[in-house]
Amino acid sequence: MKLAYFGNDMFSSCFDVFVERGHQICAVYVNPIEGIAENMLAKATRLGLTVRTGLPLPEEMKALVDEGVTLFFSAEYQHKIPTPSGLRYGVNLHTSLLPEGRGATPLPYFTHGQHQHSGLTLHKLATQFDCGDIIINTAIGVEEHDTLNSLMVKMHLQAPELLEQFLRDIDFYYTNAQPQMGGSYWPVPDITERLLDPDLTTVELQQRIKRFGHFGLFLKFEDRFWRVIHAEAVPYDAEKKPGELLFELSEMLAISNRDGFICIPKYCLVEL
């Protein structure tokens, strides 16, 4: 089967499925955002494939179909994909159990009250994001210790199994896809939900760290603004005002919060 692949590193495991099964990948599109597609670029380069970073234009998509491409497969791709009338299969992999959790970033919600909707859904590409007919899905459990980071890994590891199931009888699953009824849209969390605010309690900070993982939190410290991609919040009576520098090494610092302190490796601080 000839296909065009649209996706970034989170689901590069799906790209591997197509390669291992011997499908012909005629085009690879990634989003040109630093840090999210390096693995995909390396995989495609090793195979001698050209990676495209621009918007997928209607004329390009039609040309692919005219060349015999029958499948457009998208996984964590952030642009709308035009689907020519002659395309046989247009499929997207979404990180929730649709129809619940439409939206660009469902992951922060799964450790914040929506664990029952954690999973993966293959659905048809549609004119509106995440609204196409549901082809097949699978639940992914959320444990007490899970974070955004651990859920990303679980989804990366589970996605190939779901894709393999679909490919074993692609016509059956695609033909019997079911329209979405009802459901919910989850907006991108507001930046205020991502503040590493020293005025918060340790429990509140731990929940934010857990919820946003390497996506990062935002910190104002010493009149500068930082993105923090890893931190630890620890309860402790330091008898200091929130936001004071308590401790510093060449590789780490600690800042007081309302009822404890926050440890941050310096390599996890990105100045904004």
Describe the protein in words.
By secondary structure, this protein is α/β, with parallel strands linked by helices. The chain is built from six helices and 14 strands. The strands form three sheets. It has a seven-stranded mixed β-sheet. Helix 1 packs parallel to helix 4. It is elongated and about 70 Å long.
SSE ordering: EHEHEHEEEEHHHEEEEEEE
Distance between the termini: 45 Å
- Low-confidence runs of at least 5 consecutive residues: none
Main sheet, how many strands, which sense, barrel? Answer: 7 strands, mixed
Structural class: alpha/beta
Q: Helix content range of the residues, please?
A: 10-25%
What is the topological layout?
Elements: E1 2-7, H1 12-20, E2 24-29, H2 38-46, E3 51-52, H3 58-66, E4 71-75, E5 89-94, E6 119-124, E7 134-139, H4 148-168, H5 170-175, H6 202-212, E8 217-221, E9 224-228, E10 232-235, E11 245-248, E12 252-257, E13 260-265, E14 269-271
Parallel strand pairs: 1-2, 1-4, 2-3, 4-5
Antiparallel strand pairs: 5-6, 6-7, 8-9, 9-14, 10-13, 11-12, 12-13
Helix pairs in contact: 1-4
